Amino acid sequence: MLVLALDTTHHPGSIALAREDRILEVAAIEAPDGFGHTIYQEIEALLVRHGVRLADLDCYAAASGPGSFNGIRVGLSVVKSLAEAHQKQVVPVSNLMAMAFAAEGRYRAPVMDARRGQVFAAVYDESLRAVTPEVATPWDDFLALVGEREMTFVTTDAGLFEAAGAAPLDSNSRASWRRETVSALLAAPIALIAAAQLREGLALSPEAVDANYVRRADAKGNWQDLA
Asked: Domain limits at 80?
């Protein structure tokens, strides 16, 4: 099983090729003029390096958000068009879920800066089951939701949790809290999540794929105890 995965929702972007549960390669994509100008060349170069044709791929995957609106649209448009042309399926993967997959801990809270005094955040358990919905919410509201629970707060930008960041976090203030910074090259966990979902029959037809902009909602009261 071969999966091609893209993340064009932030800079740097990334592209990954996976076979079953193994990443064959993940590479960063720098696109100062926009990913639409470079993504097809990056795909071609990656496949050539591994002797793979587009027709050999079993599934396409892309970061579905949250993130740059234009970046989300570019990545999803690319994989949907390629999948349709080659009669393959697509797995859209949340950036927050990909961050949680790359982290460790019983409960994992991936966090991204949503601007305007808010963060994108959610809580996943170690099986990637959603314990809370993905939301855009003030950071203090999200911390109130977490409370005293054991939690690994996950980011791709270590500065996010510093005092001047969008989600200041003093890891010493809760014995049950820890911080983890994962690679910003999210195409790798996206590819592995997609491979698992393809095996489980959860991949979608290209026309059924949509973006995940994350609705701006109140995080309070959304905790579901799955322990």
From this structure: 2-94+185-208
Extract the tokens encoding 3.
């999966």
- The residues near 88 (Cβ < 8 Å, ≥ 6 apart) are 57, 58, 59, 60, 82
Specify if 139 maps to a domain. Answer: yes
**Global pTM value:** 0.94
Within this chain, do residues 159 and 195 fall inside the same structural domain, yes or no?
A: no
Among 67, 160, 153, CA closest to 103: 153
Angle at 202 between CA 197 and CA 205, to 5 degrees: 120
| pLDDT tens-digit map of 9-63 | 999 999 999 999 999 999 999 988 889 989 999 999 999 999 999 999 999 999 9
Residues 87 and 52 in one domain: yes
Which residue is associated with the tokens 């629970």?
Answer: 149
Identify whether residues 25 and 132 lie together within a single domain: no
